[in-house]
Design goal:
- It is a single chain.
- With 139 residues, this protein is mostly helical.
- It has one domain: Arc Repressor Mutant, subunit A, CATH 1.10.10.
- It has a 3-stranded antiparallel sheet.
- The radius of gyration is 19 Å and the shape is elongated.
- It starts with 14 loop residues before the first helix and ends with a helix.
Length: 139
């Protein structure tokens, strides 16, 4: 457990963050499996979902407000650098469907941005880049 004055460990590559995530998973694994009441409270009854898939990248556009739900705050802290929806689901130990509903709420509030992942075929061809480079060198 961290001291309230310590900075939050929100970098997924920080070993302290990994230790905190592991500790949270252990605590949650001792609870009843996927408490449906808790998940229902998080998502609501008729929750609409944005068209997000597992590899959609999410990046925060703002800081969490002090009155935000803990899950919203955690998502915003994690998304300071782009992370996929699958990674967010794993870090928060929440089902993909729940994370999708939470992200839909953050998207509606314009607090996060969803980006399609870079597809390798969408990148310029290496031969084209080399031709441009050689052309610029000749100038």
């Amino acid at each position: 457990m961290t001291h309230p004055q310590d900075p939050p460990y929100d970098d997924p590559h920080d070993p302290r963050f990994q230790a905190e995530v592991t500790a949270q998973r252990e605590r949650r694994s001792q609870e009843p499996a996927a408490n449906p009441a808790r998940l229902y409270i998080l998502t609501g009854e008729d929750s609409e979902r944005a068209p997000l898939d597992l590899v959609t990248l999410i990046v925060a556009k703002g800081q969490p407000s002090p009155t935000a739900q803990p899950e919203h705050s955690a998502l915003l802290r994690l998304c300071r650098t782009p992370l996929s929806v699958a990674e967010l689901s794993a870090y928060l130990v929440l089902p993909f469907s729940v994370v999708t509903v939470l992200l839909t709420e953050l998207l509606a509030a314009d607090l996060v941005q969803a980006r399609a992942p870079l597809v390798r075929s969408a990148l310029p061809d290496r031969s084209l880049l080399e031709a441009v480079m050689h052309g610029l060198q000749k100038l």
